[in-house]
Amino acid sequence: MNGLLHTARLPLQDGDLLAAVDLGSNSFHMVVARYVLGQLRVVDRIKESVRLAEGLDARGGLDPVVRDRALECLARFGQRVRDIPAQRVRAIATNSVRRLAAPHAFLMPAESALGHAIEIVAGREEARLIYLGVAHAQPPKPGELRLVIDIGGGSTECIIGSGFEAIERESVQLGCVATTRRFFDDGKLSPKRWQEALAEVATQFQQFASGYRALGWTEELGSSGTIKAIGGICAELKLTKGAVSADALPVVRDRLLQASHIDDIDLPGLSDERRPVIAGGILVLEAAFEALGLNRMQVSKAAMREGVLYDMVDRGSSLDPRETAVEAMMVRYGIDRTQAARVEATALRLFDQVAVPWSLDADDRLMLSRAARLHELGLAIAHSKYHVHGAYVIEQSDIAGFSRQQQQFLAALVRTHRRTIPKSPFEALPDRLMAQVRRSTVLLRLAVLLHRAHEGDPIPQLDARADGDTLTVTLARRWLDARPLLKADLFCEPEMVERIGITLAFETA
Q1: For residue 15, with 0-12 CB atoms within 10 Å meaning exposed, 13-18 middle and 19 or more buried, which class applies?
Q2: C-alpha to C-alpha distance for 172 and 438, rounded to whole angstroms
């Protein structure tokens, strides 16, 4: 499970295999594809109904039976991707893992079972990946906007996009499993209960419906199993040819409500596996149709897992969404590009000298580079404690392309790049990232100190060597003697970084 980002650093070659694992709230999916002539060809798909959302309690705990079911599934997935290089495998956890009170307690054995790191993504990042998958499966018409809705087990994502870019992204805490549990936990169905639930669910969509409708779209697409199942029911009832329409949906709902209990639902084409959660799915979709004024929704062949695959392809090219996101933040917060470039160059100069003995890889280098570019972000808010402000913005923002762990890693570097190093920024990170974040912190701190005066002249000598958790830095004596303020700062730094287990020493030559 080496590396933070699990992304292909070298260009993809014809014949390379890639795998995406989707830890959904209802089902776990895995898709394996081969990269051929610039395209992805799916060679294997595995789906297992885990129903992770069923195991969640109100305090964010996870039922042991559901937990074991999830780990057993991931172990089977791990067997399939055992021979695929780690940088070609990406596993994504969504709503149910986001809601866990102690996600690391689940992720540690989950990563062990799968044999790969698992990223938690925020709802809007999940929405971006869903749209990317749908857009590649059904190429959009140039210049036209399309609406994509994905009803998962724990959340529903609504996206307006153009081409391959998601323009508007929303994620609401409504999914087929969670909504069924919330409104029909006892299994009983009735028209009255349905209307009461519909009114409450609709309010979630109404929060953004007016903005979406004002922007508009020319095409409506639904992805994932719930909408696919509802489209199949519409086709079996001969209401449509597989789409979901505003006229067909009430017929499906009325047919469902002929049953007084979930176990007695009789909808043609509905699998036994999906019967326990279909009520919540239809309820959410009906609320979306009403709030957004939808007419006819085609069913997409793709979902988030396909989007993850295409995102991996983009990350191996100039289309990496994370670089675009960092650039957008630099513009938005008016970051001093010249100073950021100085700090970045010096941080990477140090990194390249110690990467091998410190077991730092290309992904760690990218994270250090991004932290250097964003370290002064908080100055747009206030100079006092600007490192704290910057870290908060990074951790709390929806940054395209980044998982929750990646944002926490980036925020930790920005938070600790100056002044006293608290323990709190590291507490949100999994143990497997502790060595990288501690070591990267020291490199960024040194780069910031060395450029505190905003000098444009190059540093004549900067040699670093690492041995275990000891870092020794050599500077030119004459150059350092001419900078007494810097010399005083560096004198205090060993005591600062000792708090995170790094022994720092300076030499002059």
Answers
A1: exposed
A2: 35
Q: Note the pLDDT tens digit of each residue in 267-292.
A: 999 999 999 999 999 999 999 999 99
CA–CA gap between residue 450 and residue 147 (Å, rounded) = 49
* Residue at a domain's end among 454, 474, 502: 454
CATH number at residue 337: 1.10.3210.10
Amino acid symbol at 253: R
Residue 2 has pLDDT above 50, yes or no: no
303 vs 127: CA distance, rounded Å: 10
Closest CA to 156 of 166, 168, 169, 137: 169
The CA distance from 304 to 127, in Å, is 8
Pairing of strands 156-162, 145-151: antiparallel
Q: Is residue 477 part of a domain?
A: no
Q: Are residues 144 and 90 in the same domain?
A: no
Cα–Cα distance list, 231 to 245, 299, 373, 408 (Å): 9, 7, 47, 39
Q: Give dist(CA 32, CA 173) in Å, integer.
A: 29
What confidence tens digit (pLDDT) does each residue in 10-55 have? 578 899 999 999 999 999 999 999 999 889 999 999 999 999 999 9
Confidence class of residue 131 from pLDDT cuts 50, 70 and 90? very high
